[in-house]
Structure formats: structure tokens, C-alpha cells
């Protein structure tokens, strides 16, 4: 089977990182091409794509109205002659000419649906996203969970830290409107006011809210407790995530929550907001802790319980087994292949 994955760009992010992992599995048995429309690429990420994959860079300038790059894209796809085109970005189908068997992965609820009728299949990354798509009038959407390379993530049995100081980590884009890092900082501020100070927070990632968050750290007197680690590679995260003691995901909304699954694979206790995406990953509380979304007081309460040593670490082993069974990228990649074959046989 010849598979063409088409994206606008390849900047480091959850979608793009997972796509690299999926491609590197699919090339074991299939002919795979990656077509990148815009000159919007993180070279270290692209270097992780298997040499067996045909990588085509169109180098279009974002938002350009020039026709030549679009002609080049379509010519390259015609030359590759795919059996199926897998789209991962909104509006890419509008710049593809001809009749192709196209499928699309939907990564969050609330997406614009005008392209969906063109697709031979729709894939949702979670049950939350699937239900949203069904409610919008597309009942045949199939859930294919996002996956992580579990075997590449270092793991050890985390216990209460010997010095009593918990290293809390949060991995995501610094974008408070979605990721809610401000909620976490306010919760830590509450802990300090209560006299609880046996913690350090490490924020891994970059984004438009960094300055706001740095100012909030100063305002709350958290300068000695919060560290901005910046953007880290996937390899770095996979090797070092297990060195922390607690993972917190305070998102206001989330279609899935790949970093939650990664933390569970690393053996970390996880504490997430009670929104559908992360809740689905932790089995609605069976494999991790929750707090009321947007409520920094409730988050502070749950953190205080954990920081006092009241955590059942047998949950981390159960969480690890759950991730292996449900969210390994090997399973994700093979599930996509099965769905491609169903589309082609129609």
C-alpha cells in the first residue's frame, strides 16, 4: 500500500511528533510519503523520520497565495501515486486536485466540518472527539486513539522522594487559555499560604503565555519554586520524565492529552483536571487523580494530599499496564492500516 501523509508544517507538537512515530512504524511494511506544504519545519523533528519514508518539502510560505507551490504539491503527489491520502490538518484537502481516497484525523472537538463530506473515512483521537463529530452529523467516525512509543520511555517505580521535596512537572505548550498553567501556579500559591513548601515545579514547553506566567510567578512569590525549562526534544522528555515525582495537567479543555499518557508510561502519579480527554486516559479516576477543572482551590487540596505522602503507588503500575494496552503507538499505527484497507476495498 502507498500511503501519503499530508500536513501544513512539521513544527514540534503532539500531532507532528506522533505522526513521525506512526510513519516510522508504517514504513516497515508499506510505501509511505510525507508531504509538507509550508516552510514551517523543525529540522530535529524531521530528522527522526525514517529514511525509508519519502519526504517531500514544498517550501511554500505560510498564507502565500502563489499557485506554483500548489501545483508542485499536486505534481509530487501524482508522481507518488498513493492508494490513500491521510490528512492531519484543516483545509489541506482544498489544495489537492483530482479524485483521491482521502481520510482525516480529527484532533479536538469543535472543528469546522466543511471538509468532512470529502473524506472516505474520519478518525477521532478520543471518545470525546468522536461524540462531537457524531453530534455534528457524521455518524461513521471511528476512534483511533493517539499513541505513544511506550518502549522508548524510561520508567522506574516512583516512591515518596527521600528529601521530601516533590518535583512536579507539566509538559505542554505555554498557552493558558487551553493548558491552564495559571491554575497550577495559583494552586501552588495557595499551598505556600498554607505553609506547604515541599515542592518544585518544572514547566517544559514554550508558548505565547510565557511572559504572563513568569509575571504570575513573581506576583505569587513562587520565584524559588518554579523553573521554566523551555522546549525539550521528545528524546529528552522520554529519558528524563521518570526523574520527576508528580505530573500535573491543569488543562481547561483538551481533546486527548498525549503528555498524560507519557507520564503514566514513565511511572509517574498523574493529577489531571476532570475534563473528558484526560479523564478518558486515566480511566475516569481508576489510574490517576483528578481535580475540578479551573478550580485552583481544589487543585491545591489534591496537591496537599499528595505532598503529604498520601498516595497509593500501586496505581502507577496499573496505569503503566493500561497505557501499554490502550495507547501504544504500535497499536495506533496498525489500526490506521486496518482502516486504510477498509477504505480501499469499498
* β-strand number: 13
CATH architecture of the largest domain, please?
A: 3-Layer(aba) Sandwich
Shape: elongated
CATH fold name of the largest domain = Rossmann fold
Largest sheet: 7 strands, parallel
Order of helices and strands: EHEHEHEEEHEEHHEHEHEHEHEHHH
Low-confidence stretches: none
Question: If helices are DSSP runs of H or I spanning 4 or more residues, what is the number of helices?
Answer: 13
The CATH class of the largest domain: Alpha Beta
Within CATH, the superfamily of the largest domain carries the name Glycogen Phosphorylase B
Radius of gyration: 21 Å
User: What distance lies between the first and last C-alpha atoms, to the nearest angstrom?
Assistant: 15 Å
Describe the protein.
The chain contains 13 helices and 13 strands. By secondary structure, the chain is α/β, with parallel strands linked by helices. It folds into two domains: 2-147 and 328-345, Glycogen Phosphorylase B (Rossmann fold, 3-Layer(aba) Sandwich), CATH 3.40.50.2000; 151-326, Glycogen Phosphorylase B (Rossmann fold, 3-Layer(aba) Sandwich). It has a seven-stranded parallel beta sheet. Strands 10-9-8-11-12-13 form a six-stranded parallel beta sheet, sandwiched between helices. Helix 1 (14-26) crosses helix 13 and helix 9 crosses helix 12. It starts with a strand and ends with a helix.
Amino acid at each position: 500500500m502507498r500511503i501519503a501523509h499530508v500536513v501544513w508544517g512539521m513544527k514540534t507538537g503532539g500531532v507532528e511528533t506522533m505522526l513521525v512515530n506512526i510513519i516510522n512504524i508504517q514504513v516497515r511494511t508499506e510505501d509511505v510519503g510525507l508531504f509538507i506544504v509550508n516552510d514551517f519545519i523543525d529540522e530535529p523533528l524531521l530528522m527522526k523520520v525514517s529514511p525509508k519514508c519519502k519526504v517531500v518539502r514544498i517550501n511554500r510560505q505560510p498564507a502565500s497565495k502563489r499557485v506554483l507551490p500548489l501545483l508542485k504539491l499536486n505534481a509530487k503527489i501524482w508522481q507518488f501515486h498513493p492508494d490513500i491520502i491521510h490528512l492531519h490538518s484543516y483545509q489541506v484537502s482544498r489544495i489537492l486536485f483530482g479524485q483521491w481516497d482521502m481520510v482525516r484525523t480529527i484532533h479536538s472537538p469543535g472543528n469546522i466540518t466543511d471538509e468532512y463530506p470529502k473524506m472516505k473515512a474520519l478518525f477521532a483521537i478520543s471518545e470525546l472527539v468522536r461524540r462531537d463529530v457524531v453530534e455534528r452529523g457524521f455518524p461513521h467516525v471511528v476512534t483511533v486513539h493517539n499513541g505513544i512509543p511506550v518502549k522508548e520511555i524510561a520508567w522506574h517505580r516512583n516512591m515518596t522522594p527521600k528529601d521530601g521535596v516533590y518535583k512536579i512537572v507539566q509538559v505542554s505548550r505555554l498557552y493558558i487559555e487551553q493548558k491552564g498553567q495559571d491554575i497550577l501556579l495559583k494552586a501552588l500559591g495557595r499551598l505556600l499560604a498554607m505553609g506547604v513548601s515541599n515542592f518544585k515545579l518544572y514547566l517544559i514547553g514554550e508558548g505565547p503565555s510565557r511572559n504572563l506566567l513568569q509575571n504570575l510567578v513573581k506576583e505569587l512569590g513562587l520565584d524559588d519554586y518554579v523553573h521554566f525549562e523551555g522546549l525539550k526534544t521528545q528524546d529528552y522528555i522520554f529519558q528524563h520524565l521518570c526523574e520527576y515525582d508528580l505530573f500535573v495537567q491543569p488543562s481547561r479543555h483538551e481533546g486527548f492529552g498525549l503528555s498524560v499518557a507519557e507520564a503514566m508510561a514513565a511511572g509517574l502519579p498523574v493529577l489531571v483536571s476532570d475534563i473528558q480527554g484526560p479523564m478518558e486516559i486515566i480511566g475516569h479516576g481508576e489510574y490517576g487523580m483528578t481535580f475540578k477543572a479551573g478550580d485552583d482551590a481544589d487543585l491545591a487540596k489534591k496537591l496537599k494530599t499528595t505532598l503529604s505522602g498520601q498516595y497509593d503507588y500501586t496505581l502507577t503500575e496499573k496505569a503503566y499496564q493500561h497505557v501499554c494496552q490502550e495507547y501504544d503507538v504500535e497499536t495506533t499505527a496498525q489500526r490506521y492500516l486496518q482502516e486504510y484497507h477498509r477504505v480501499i476495498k469499498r
